[in-house]
């Protein structure tokens, strides 16, 4: 067995080695689930899989801890499968090869799977290690987290008996995650009839580029430029004052990404070109003055292109662009329970317009489900007012933070005793399994923590070895501190 498996805590590293030896891409978790079931059978632990293919293993309380509240330990067993170019690794068949690099462990040109394999390995430790002290446990191994929280979404309600959930999927030690955002998308579709382009017109293609982009949840607080909002802002006076008509718009690539670029083609009277170019230069200067400190590479330019036969009518151009200008975007509300954390936001993610059809995609997030949907209603009303058809995508629930819950206070007290300081209380403005799980089991008192993992989802993924030992010791101490049943 790899020498890494002998590092302390052996309870984690031996089991993580087993996970590295067992291919476990998202949707292909059968082999690892069978491994876990065989481990449970060898110890006589009861287990079941639910209809969502999630595995639950029951661990009896140790003597003296029978009266403690039942705790669910939870991690997902699937991993992201990314390899560097030139790698011949086959994630369906090949084991992950771990490499020690100082205080860090990484993999050989592939993702390591420490996300969330270290958490899963810690849970396996309660099946392999003797002498651990804890009350009754349920080990909840979820599937297909990386592809869209699918296992958690399909978890059967009513089958687990625990009261406290410890999620082991946070990637910075000394932190407790106590809340996350849920999300829901919407697509507004606007049909129009293109009209002929008259004589005396010219066509210009506008390229708005150089924005940073970013994650539409985590990075929304930074005030980054949104290419869709900026393009619509420029087009509004061009349509109103210069007679511009929209031909095409192509902007944004993904609903969970802040759009970095927007490309729009317009037609306008040839005698308005000079004014158009002047307005473009003035707009570029305005935007650079407003957000140049955070978006130093912002640029907008226009060039002549072939004159199309048809374009959106002047009325429809104004109507549609005004809706994009008026659509909500960015931070909508900050948390009232955790300082400095976004509660509710929306991202105007994608605009596609051509040949009689325009589609606008927005993605809303909130740790409060009603606030998420209230913001989707705002966006819906804006586009319904111009006659667009709006369809909502399936939503996933958020996890409303309670930084003063019994389990959070317990984890804080244990942290102070072990490390001499309070943990950082964190709420993430992105989707986590806890949000979905908590909707299935509203009575659960939940918290998430874990060791330090860097660059997850990439071949540079690595886990900090000393933090894994501290994480294990913290978990064991927390389980000994679990309160008695009411």
From TrEMBL:
It comes from Thalassospira xiamenensis. Residues 207-290 form the Peptidase M20 dimerisation domain. NCBIfam families: aa-his-dipept. Keywords: Hydrolase. This is Aminoacyl-histidine dipeptidase. InterPro entries: Peptidase_M20, Peptidase_M20_dimer, Peptidase_M20C. The keyword Hydrolase applies. It comes from the Bacteria. The keyword NAD does not apply. The lineage of its organism: Bacteria, Pseudomonadati, Pseudomonadota, Alphaproteobacteria, Rhodospirillales. It holds the Pfam family Peptidase_M20.
